[in-house]
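Researcher: Please generate the 3D structure of the following complex. Treat every line as part of one assembly.
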Amino acid sequence: MRILVCIKEIQDPEIAASVFRVDEQRKEVVPLAGLPLVTSPFDAQAVEAALRIRDKGCQCQISVITLGPEDAKRAIKRALSMGVDDGIHVSDSGIERGDSVLTAHVLSAAIRQLGQFDLILTGRQAADWDAGIVGCGIAELLRIPVVTFAMSVQVDGRRAVVERVLDDGFETVEAPLPCVITVSNELGEPRKASLRETMRAAKKPTLTRNLESIGMTPDSLAARARLQERTRLFVPAKNNKCELVTGDSAQAMAKQMVSRLTAAKLL
Amino acid sequence: MSGVLIIGETAGGAPLPLVYELLGLGRRLSGDVEGPVSVLVLGNAPAPLLSGLVAGGADRVYVASTEAAGLYESDVWLAALREVLAKVSPQLILAGHTPLGADLAPRLAFQLNAAIATGCEQLAQSGGQVHATRPCFGHKAREVLSLLTSPAVATVRARSSEPLDPDANRLGEVTYLTVPAFEAAAIPRVKSRKRDDVKDGPRLEGAKVVVAGGRGLGCPEGFAELAKLAEALGGVVGASRVACDLGWCPHSWQIGLTGKTVTPELYIAVGISGASHHMAGCGNAGAILAINSDPEAAIFKDARFGIVGDYREIVPALVREIVNSRA
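Model: Done. Output below.
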């Protein structure tokens, strides 16, 4: 049984809005100096989902794959330190700027070249662009089933059993393998790196792939990327003033607030 | 290629409110894209449902019947869409940004090699192209995507667009389709669904008052205090992602980017720091009252009213004052 988890390294999504900046000319986010990048939290939860499958006694080899510059190897390292067995780093100077559609094409080409995986896991969306396209795209390009928004994933023989988040509960879905499953935050916290796995991580293999080695060229990729185009990126203006009530006691503050809410016709 | 095709998602035998919002959006766009607004529904659609969709803005309703009970929903929709797209060539295909739509739309886009924009707040048309505005970076930023293909596919967040006033005199055409049986061996199967027990009373999405709790509650019992405040105001209790993920309340209470979008007249945020991904779900509320022990909490930047203090004292005090003010 082989499991592949697709991960992405991004700017920490928890940073305060007050320090978040975009470059409107380049239509890109301005990286914050000195702030270490993180694995997209939903992707870390996808790694966690894979490790939980192994914890349940399933004999499996767990790999991670990431597309990105040299630095993106750190995301692989973090996954190896959580207990993943090996990594695949796809990098090419011909990939200037990624979008979700392009990423799905590159990853699915790499997966095809790497051989048979039984289960491919991704986060429900990368916590930077928040698009939620790559997982579904990989499934369609590889022509295998997909189940989205998993809060738990189990493997039973040649089937994956997924609890899938709905608006008002969840559904239990059985999917034949191979398939793609996207993992939602309801899965719960990913484990921390363990000392044992961190010591072993240095010895675990990481393969490197470029476009040519997965049967693509920058030109073939560019043709794929012309479906949509980002024409603007901006931070919406906020013009809000908060009326804070103060008082000596909770009761005094509550009284004042109720009269203000009443005056504003909100009660 | 012209017109708009809408995914007519239903729940409990009726279209989601979001479908009417999409119809309104489609109508407004159809002036520009010059074509019919079509909507696809699955299964046995009773006459009132069909006339409701026409009154809501649909020119054409496609009803696809299928034998595919128990199969993964989005696969069934994709099969039905293949039938409809053999008959119509819309410029734009719209779905709600729901667990169904957010699964279906990207898959459809890859099958059609079409542009895709997910979780959109606004769609506009100019120069023969659709331009989608969508939140990104946890709702901190917005990007505008020009969708260069026809058809293009987009999912739209709930409550970002107004439905039309229903017009019972509108005329529309209903077409029945049969989805041919398809090889189901490679399609995931839904074995069971577990819905939350919902007591009588307004659901979160339609509530006029929402009282939501976050990590600052400190414990699951905090939600019992919030429930008393919600009851006094005739409102509903919601939660931040953290509170849900800590297991303090059902996941379906989650408000935010990966949860529900609510637009109550009054949103009371208790012990919620105000991360932008949370504001994605409540930023369009009429007014926000924030109760937080941290005066520096980001939530005060979005709130119209604020109280700095311990919610364990303030929430019961508010309940007493509200009851008194009505006595």
